[in-house]
Amino acid sequence: MLNRKECILVNEISTLCCHAEAKFFAKYQKWAKEHSFELMLPGDVKAHKDNAAQQMVSYMDKLFKQAAIEWLMSTDQPIQALEHPKFKEMINIAAHATNGVKIPGRKATHAEIMRTFKTHLMGLRSKLNVSKIYDIALST
């Protein structure tokens, strides 16, 4: 029989990625470069995230003012829109985001508006039930 080292197989991706990074980094990097493949080992992903965080524009009142005015003009909003409590609430919520803000698309927005309208309508329907109003009118 052959003398082989005992080998343990692991099926966890995170462990496999760490193993590949530790043992085959140079080969992997060479292969990725030859095949125009984005490096995806844990260290590469962390470095990519760090670079993206450094490239993010830091907040400045001047930039926000400019963006707000451009938004007003390009969407034909009234100037008072910036003073609306719901607009301020939206901006305050977005200000706490750590990884940017995901703005819903048209379909998702439409679906949410329709769901909210339907919920509101069902609430009104239960409050303004015709049979209840009819019973009250008969008892007086």
Bulk shape: elongated
Number of strands: 0
Radius of gyration: 29 Å
Give the count of helical stretches: 6
- Relative strand content: under 5%
Helical residue percent band: 55-70%
Could you tell me how far the N terminus lies from the C terminus, measured between alpha carbons in angstroms?
101 Å
Low-confidence stretches: none
Query: How does the helix and strand content classify structurally?
Result: mainly alpha
Largest sheet: none
What is the helix/strand order?
HHHHHH
Mean pLDDT: 79
Descriptive account of the structure:
With 140 residues, this protein is an all-alpha fold. The protein is 66% helix and 0% strand. The protein contains six helices and no strands. It has helices at 13-34, 42-55, 61-74, 85-95, 106-127, 130-139. It starts with 12 loop residues before the first helix and ends with a helix.
In short:
With 140 residues, the chain is mostly helical. 66% of the residues lie in helices and 0% in strands.
Give descriptors for this structure.
6 helices; 66% helix; mainly alpha; elongated; 140 residues
List the helices and strands and how they pair.
Layout lengths: L12 H22 L7 H14 L5 H14 L10 H11 L10 H22 L2 H10 L1
